[in-house]
Amino acid sequence: MVSSPAPSPPPSTGPQKKRGSTKDSVGLYAVQCCDCYKWRTVPTKEEFETIRENFTEDPWSCSKRPDCSCDEPADIKYDNSCVWVIDKPDIPKPPQDTERLVIMRRDFTKMDAYYVMPNGKRARCEGDVEKFLEAFPEYKDRMSASRFNFSTPKIVEETVSDKSAWKAAKAKKQGKADTPGGKK
Ligand SMILES: [Zn+2]
Fold it and tell me: Does residue 31 contact residue 4 with C-beta atoms inside 8 Å?
């Protein structure tokens, strides 16, 4: 697994979410070393976004952190004590004055990605970004629609604790009650 992950705690342990909150569902960021495969936590979202931006071209390793080497024990273990979601690599950093948020759906079936635009409105797709730039052309030289990326992290099924509820919700969403095969 080479993409940068973002583990997020289950809602019961995470910060309380209010409706319309502008908080991510992600409680903790981590990155995997390309040499020793240990997981290292990343202190801030901004730092995570920087690592993610060039992840394929410039893979992360322990030596990039001043106080760290591959000999140090892992910061965090990849297990089901929290729900892990794996982010796509190479997502550009959000343009200035915008914030990129990923929100976990209540039933853990999917995450949604959107940007909070400089006017406080949410952009959920490229069309929304284009509409914003039409309405506020002064931003056109500062941000281009191509800098926005709406791909969402993949939820790691094994780490979703209540798997039966999760599967039921997912099956319901896909419109088929009986998922073929794969029963353990
Ligand atoms: Zn390492």
Answer: yes
- Does domain 5-12+23-161 fall into CATH 3.40.50.720? no
Strand, helix or coil at 30? strand
Distance 43 CA to ligand 1 centre (A): 17
Question: Domains of the chain: which residue ranges?
Answer: 5-12+23-161
What stretches in the chain show pLDDT beneath 50? 1-4, 8-20, 177, 179, 182-184
Ligand 1 centroid, distance to 92 Cα (angstroms): 24
Ligand 1 centroid vs 77 CA: distance in angstroms? 14
9 CA → ligand 1 middle, Å: 24
Answer yes or no: are the C-beta atoms of 153 and 147 closer than 8 Å: no
Rounded to two decimals, the pTM is 0.78
